[in-house]
Amino acid sequence: xxxxxxxxxxxxxxxxxxxxxxxxxxxxxxxxxxxxxxxxxxxxxxxxxxxxxxxxxxxxxxxxxxxxxxxxxxxxxxxxxxxxxxxxxxxxxxxxxxxxxxxxxxxxxxxxxxxxxxxxxxxxxxxxxxxxxxxxxxxxxxxxxxxxxxxxxxxxxxxxxxxxxxxxxxxxxxxxxxxxxxxxxxxxxxxxxxxxxxxxxx
Length: 202
Description:
Strand content: over 45%
Order of helices and strands: EHEEEEEEEEEEEEEEEEEEEEEEEE
Number of strands: 25
Radius of gyration: 15 Å
Oligomer: single chain
Largest sheet: 14 strands, parallel
């Protein structure tokens, strides 16, 4: 069945500092009205740290806002061989101060995001450090994004002595693999020291 978290403190359901290493198969059901707002160094998302797999799931009408770090629609940190497959995050607001993405805040290795879509708002605003905002993933160095797209707006603003990175798909690193993926969302940058502003991938 679908789940509606209206009026529910999600952090009481799943503790603020949490990590998931198994397989969550949503069966293409919908989770609605999840709200997580806080100052969480491990990240704010449906799952803060994901080392397992989330697949076949829809997240709708939800908000994940972090005043002290990364944020994502599914996870703030995708790592240790984790993957996100067949996931649609729609009408969602994702905000943070470092790595922020509609699906994942950051990919920390060669993890995979495939057949995913985001629709909503992504923003990374930092008063002192670098800001990374991506329609699908905020930042990755070796990650893979396959058959996925962004339709949401992406905004970033870094600190006055730092850099701003903003992209419709992902802000990249050394060896990313982006296959059959695209952005049609609006890209917005508000910062004096702009490092990158691209409609696809940096």
